[in-house]
Each structure stands twice: as structure tokens, then as C-alpha cells.
């Protein structure tokens, strides 16, 4: 009795389950690499952090020059001069490490903020395309083993974002 009831439910549910869902995939990495906004973000960050990067590079050059001077002129320098130069080099090295670490953290944080802004735009574009083309599900490309090229909407997302 139970088996018959189960069989009837399976047979009645088969037409419903047979209705295929329309599925698309997006290669997020490829989309981000092709976005024209990526160049704008890069320029913005270079402008924002340009002075600090130049300052760190100047300190690196100064430290390198001092190291070369020490190696070249060590035999001619007095012990006092050697000690003074070593202290100055250690001071510059410590300041360089501190400024370099702070710069790196700030740049990473700002880059993350800008990437998140782009991600919101990408997600909106994906949603708009999915609604327009009536996709039931949109998956990331890495989550599937095989997909027909016609189901990949990555180029449509890039095109939509390129138009603005």
C-alpha cells in the first residue's frame, strides 16, 4: 500500500521536476580583469598614494646610498663615524619599515573598498541580465565543471558595465 502511494506521488511529480531551469554562469575573475573601471581605480589609487609611495622610495634610495657609502668608505672612517652612520641607518630602516607597512595596509584597504564598489556594480549587472533573459539561476564559473558557451554571460556583464 505504501509503495503504491509512493509510486503515484513520484509519477505525479515527474512532470514538475522535468521542467528545466534556465541556468547561466559568470566568470567573475575574467569580468574583473576586463572591466574598464579597473583602470580608473588603479589611477585613483596611484594619485591618492603617489606622494607616500615616492616618500618610501626616497627613503629606500637614501638607505641604499648610505649602505654603499659605508661599504666603500669603511676603511677610511673612524669608529665614531661608523657608529653614527650605523645608528642613522638603523633609524631610517625602522622608519622605512613603519611607513612601508602603514602604506601597504592603507593601499590594501582602499583597494578592497574600490573592489567592493565594483563588485556591487557587477552584481547589479548580473541581476539585470538574469532578469532580462529570464535565468532562474546564475552560478560562478568555478562552481561548475562543464557549461555550454551559450550559458556563459560574462561577456554580457562586461559589455553592460562598459556602457555605464
Describe the structure.
This protein is mostly helical. The chain has a single domain, classed as Protein Binding, DinI Protein, Chain A. 76% of the residues lie in helices and 5% in strands. The chain contains five helices and two strands; from the N terminus they run αβαααβα. The protein has helices spanning 2-18, 28-34, 37-73, 79-132, 154-163, and strands spanning 23-26, 137-140. A two-stranded parallel sheet has the order 1-2. Helix 2 (28-34) runs parallel beside helix 5 and helix 4 (79-132) crosses helix 5. The longest helix has 54 residues, at 79-132.
Task: List the topology elements.
Blueprint: H1 2-18, E1 23-26, H2 28-34, H3 37-73, H4 79-132, E2 137-140, H5 154-163
Parallel strand pairs: 1-2
Amino acid at each position: 500500500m505504501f509503495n503504491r502511494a509512493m509510486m503515484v506521488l513520484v509519477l505525479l511529480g515527474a512532470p514538475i521536476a522535468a521542467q528545466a531551469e534556465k541556468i547561466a554562469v559568470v566568470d567573475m575573475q575574467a569580468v574583473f580583469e576586463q572591466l574598464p573601471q579597473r583602470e580608473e581605480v588603479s589611477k585613483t589609487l596611484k594619485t591618492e598614494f603617489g606622494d607616500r609611495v615616492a616618500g618610501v622610495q626616497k627613503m629606500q634610495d637614501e638607505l641604499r646610498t648610505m649602505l654603499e657609502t659605508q661599504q666603500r668608505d669603511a676603511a677610511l672612517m673612524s669608529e665614531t663615524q661608523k657608529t653614527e652612520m650605523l645608528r642613522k641607518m638603523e633609524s631610517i630602516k625602522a622608519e622605512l619599515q613603519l611607513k612601508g607597512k602603514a602604506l601597504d595596509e592603507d593601499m590594501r584597504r582602499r583597494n578592497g573598498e574600490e573592489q567592493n564598489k565594483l563588485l556591487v556594480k557587477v552584481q547589479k549587472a548580473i541581476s539585470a541580465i538574469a532578469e532580462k533573459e529570464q535565468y532562474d539561476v546564475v552560478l560562478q564559473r568555478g562552481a561548475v565543471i562543464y557549461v555550454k558557451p551559450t550559458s556563459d554571460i560574462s561577456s554580457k556583464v562586461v559589455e553592460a558595465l562598459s556602457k555605464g
